[in-house]
Amino acid sequence: MGDGLASNVKPAAAANAPAVPPERFATSVNVDVPVAGEGEFQPLQLGEGRVSSEGVIPVWPPVVLAPMAGVTNLAFRSLCREYGAGLYVSEMITARGYLMGNRLTNLLASSSPDESPRSVQVYGADPVDLGEMVKSLVDDGVDHLDINMGCPVPKVTRSGGGSAIPVKPRLLARLVRAMVQNAGDVPVTVKMRMGIQDNLLTYEEAGRAAEGEGASAVGLHARTASQLYSGEANWASIARLVEVLDVPVLGNGDIWESYDALRMMRATGCAGVIVGRGCLGRPWLFRELSQAFNGQEPDLPPHFAGVVEVMVDHAHRLIELFGPDVGMRQMRKWCSWYTKGFRGSAAVRGNLMRIQSIEDLVAAVSTLDPNEAFPTTALRAQRAKGSKTQTVKLPEGYLDDLNDDTPPKGPRSVDEIEAWEKALNGG
User: Fold this and answer.
1) Percent of the residues in the chain that have a pLDDT greater than 70, as a whole number
2) Residue 351 lies in a domain
3) Which of 80, 151, 270, 335 is labelled catalytic?
4) Between 210 and which of 186, 190, 258, 303 could a Cys-Cys bridge form, CB atoms 3.0 to 4.6 Å apart?
5) In terms of domains, do 285 and 314 share one?
6) Which residues contact 45 (CB under 8 A, 6 or more apart)?
């Protein structure tokens, strides 16, 4: 669905769209997609009709950096912001860990004075914890709050959390209500998946429940929890949710190139897009998105020498945030993503996985061609998440009473919280 559209979802023609250049840097699915026409798309007004005018966040381009565990910390968010992301969400933090003052949780929730708007994704399955956490975050100056209801990790769903929550719309409603009642003028949004599996889709009823409790928008990752990140995203489900809800719907799934975002919005009518795996090792994707939404043909991605410059910059930011040891360990996975598809990169990947300093990083890639252009084959290459599927683990008897709004058991001890912090992802 990400590369092609269901028969009942047709792309609209771009009004006054500039002509597509004869030689465009894009994969075959996007060679004929026009950039945005004048006035074709509008800024996302996050919170409009839900909070006062002072709390509404205008988002342009209507592009959101997806919350991703181990990825969207302050270092990467700052890179994406400089390239042009409209809204950039923190990696998810647990309510209980935050309230207990867990050091890592608080670090992941941290910001910088120049980060505006400040957006945080939270995870919690206890309304009391969520309410207290939201009050604290609002007092700390957070401008936008999102709740994760899409995490498919077995450790989470086995306890009835993450993507298991939307199966029980009354429980979802309790959690959203607790956030909205304590958020004041701060918009609250919900991110979810289509459902557990193809024969247990929950997104329509869950979306209505979130809207009914005051959510300002609903983000839909157009895959089920059982799909994980495999196959193609079902953009038709995004179009359906747009029909069902009055609040803005944000589409998530298979935004690998800037033109994908235009195709998604034209095909589904969604108010904005959420970009996840496509930007891993490619923060300049947000520059390309900004240009495409502003009616310009996007710049070419950097040659390898330019990629290395971004890698070094990113490493410095991680060191500043986490310190030299943890920062460079964090950088190792990024090196694999940044070098994906370049000739000879597989041969140096072992060295990149052992780097302990920026000097090690530069030395490891010194044998690669600095003048090599960014490979087209790397535009849609899988990064981070694989193509496997799963059988979703749920608590015994969880589906017996879908009207039950009893909060599931979440992490309580320090050890449990640390284990969940490692396991959770952006859904």
Assistant:
1) 91
2) yes
3) 151
4) 190
5) no
6) 56, 57, 58, 59, 248
- Compute the distance between CA of residue 289 and CA of residue 292 in angstroms, rounded to an integer: 5
Choose among 104, 30, 64: nearest CA to 249. Answer: 64
How many CB atoms within 10 Å of residue 281?
Answer: 24
Peptide bond into 61 cis (omega under 30): yes
Side chain identity, residue 222: A
Helix axes 235-244, 203-212, angle to 10 degrees: 40
Residues 6+ apart with CB under 8 A from 113: none
**Same domain, residue pair 254 and 342:** no
State in Å, rounded, how far the first CA of the chain is from the last one. Answer: 18
The answer to whether residue 91 sits within a structural domain is: yes
Q: Does the residue 235 lie in any domain? A: yes
Q: Tell whether the model's pLDDT for residue 40 goes beyond 90.
A: yes
Q: Are residues 402 and 363 in the same domain?
A: no
Query: Which positions ≥6 away from 296 have C-beta within 8 Å?
Result: 35
pLDDT for position 106: 82
Q: Which residue has the tokens 């009642």?
A: 181
Q: What is the mean pLDDT of residues 300-319?
A: 98
Is residue 41 within 8 Å of 396, Cβ to Cβ? no
Residues 308 and 244 in one domain: no
Residue with tokens 């909060």: 407
Catalytic residue list contains 279: no
Give the pair of three-digit tokens for residue 81: 């912001």
pLDDT by residue (tens digit) across 153-192? Answer: 888 898 888 899 999 999 999 999 999 999 999 999 999 9
Interval 115-133: pLDDT, tens:
999 999 998 888 999 999 9
Q: Do both 209 and 156 map to the same domain?
A: yes
Residues 371/303, Cβ–Cβ less than 8 Å? yes
Distances (CA, A) of 153 to 173, 275, 312: 22, 20, 32
User: What is the tens place of the pLDDT at every residue in 385-407?
Assistant: 667 999 999 999 999 999 999 98
Taking residue 90's Cβ as centre, other Cβ atoms within 10 Å add up to 25
Q: In 47-139, where do the E strands start and end?
A: 57-59, 63-65, 87-88, 93-94, 119-123
- Three-state DSSP string of 312-369: HHHHHHHHHHHCHHHHHHHHHHHHHHHCCCCCCHHHHHHHHCCCCCHHHHHHHCCCCC
Q: What is the mean pLDDT of residues 413-422?
A: 70
For the beta carbon of residue 211, count every other beta carbon within 10 angstroms.
21
Mean per-residue pLDDT, 38-48: 97
* pLDDT reported for residue 168: 96
Domain membership of residue 186 as a residue range: 43-299+394-423
